[in-house]
Amino acid sequence: MGDQDLSKESGAEHTITARDVVVRFGSIVALDNFSIQVPKGIVGLLGPNGAGKSTFIKTVLGLVSFESGEVRISGMDPRTDVMAIRDRVGYMPEHDCLVDTMTGLELVTYFGRLSGMTKEDSIPRSHEVLDFVGLGEERYRPTSTYSTGMKQRVKLAQAIVHDPEILFLDEPTNGMDPLGREEMLELISRIAASNKSILVSSHILQDMEKVCQHVVIINNGRAITQGPMSALLDQGRDRKRIQVRGDHQALLRFAEQLGRSYQVISVSEEFGQMTIVLVNSGPSAALLELAKAHGVQVRSYVPDKLTLEGAFIRSVKEGA
Fold first, then answer.
1. Torsion of CA 296, 298, 304, 308, to 10 degrees
2. If residue 210 lies in a helix (H) or strand (E), which one and from where to where?
3. Which CATH number is 239-304's, of 3.30.70.120, 1.10.260.40, 3.40.50.300, 3.30.70.360?
4. Residue 301, number of CB atoms within 10 A of its CB
5. pTM for the full predicted model
6. How much is the average pLDDT of 78-82?
7. Which residue, among 25, 77, 15, 90, has the nearest Cα to 221 in the 3D structure?
8. What is the pLDDT of residue 314?
């Protein structure tokens, strides 16, 4: 799957494009002829630590200079259309951007003013987005007293206060407990439902699998895989996974017979249960009868799907 581009299956309008972008920090190449196309919707930007995820986001925002290549965000160039892009994008950084002495309300209002809002508009709008992210009376407390989850919520609030078209969220669930992560993912989904484009960088793959429709996987400063989530996780329509239990010898005989009748991809056995991945384009009746004849119990028979973690590991290994 190295350098695989699944985006042709999408046909979606691209909000962010990068072509052959090179970014260096001294002798370190952070982005190496980096090229991607980001469609509308929730897009996961995934990669190992140091892969170039945050560098790419900062490059698109005009915070990092690139020495060659081309970047466009809604058709605009981050090197020349700085103010126009600032009006249209929101950014939730990975690390704290909070001013400890400010309350949550003051902070969000301040960022609204930085994004071009008037004082008259920014205050009521700040209350609105703070309600949305679930910060009640806490909005009147200094952000220095906030928990990690509250800091993540107020960072999201400042990113959406000016109602941007495109959002960049860098590790939005980082440091949050399971309930807080679920609530943050729900907020992201609700924002996307209002016709926003959201690029989410995260190392928590289970979270990304829940909310993203499209995925870009980066390694060593290059995009090695990109495309719809469904295409990335699809193992092929005819690949099936069957789990059976029974006597060890019976399981071995069953697996051997399957190998004569079907294309078997893999066989694994643990604690008296065998998992077999095979190709079967026909009905399941013959396979179930075969299991019955060998005295093994079928526990499940389902399409073989990759998890996002499995797809990520495979992509990184093949792209190395």
1. -100
2. helix 205-211
3. 3.30.70.120
4. 16
5. 0.77
6. 89
7. 25
8. 81
As given in the structure block, the two tokens for residue 43 are 């897009």
Give CA–CA dist 239/208, Å, rounded. 24
End-to-end, the C-alpha distance of the chain in Å comes to 11
Domain-by-domain residue ranges, the chain?
4-233, 239-304
Written as six digits, the tokens of 61 are 């925002």
Q: What is the CATH topology of the domain spanning 4-233?
A: Rossmann fold (3.40.50)
Provide the H-helix boundaries in 215-261.
Answer: 229-233, 248-261
Q: How many CB atoms lie within 10 A of CB 102?
A: 16
pLDDT over 60 at 12, yes or no: no
CB 201 within 8 A of CB 54: yes
Q: Which amino acid is at 124?
A: P
Kindly report, residue by residue over 263-293, the tens digit of the pLDDT.
Answer: 998 899 988 899 999 999 888 898 999 999 9
pLDDT digits (tens, 9 = 90+) for 83-126: 888 888 999 998 888 999 999 999 999 999 988 899 899 999 99
In total, the chain counts a number of residues equal to 320
List CB contacts of 62: < 8 A, sequence separation 6 or more. Answer: 78, 79, 82, 85
Tell me if 4-233 shares its fold with 239-304: no
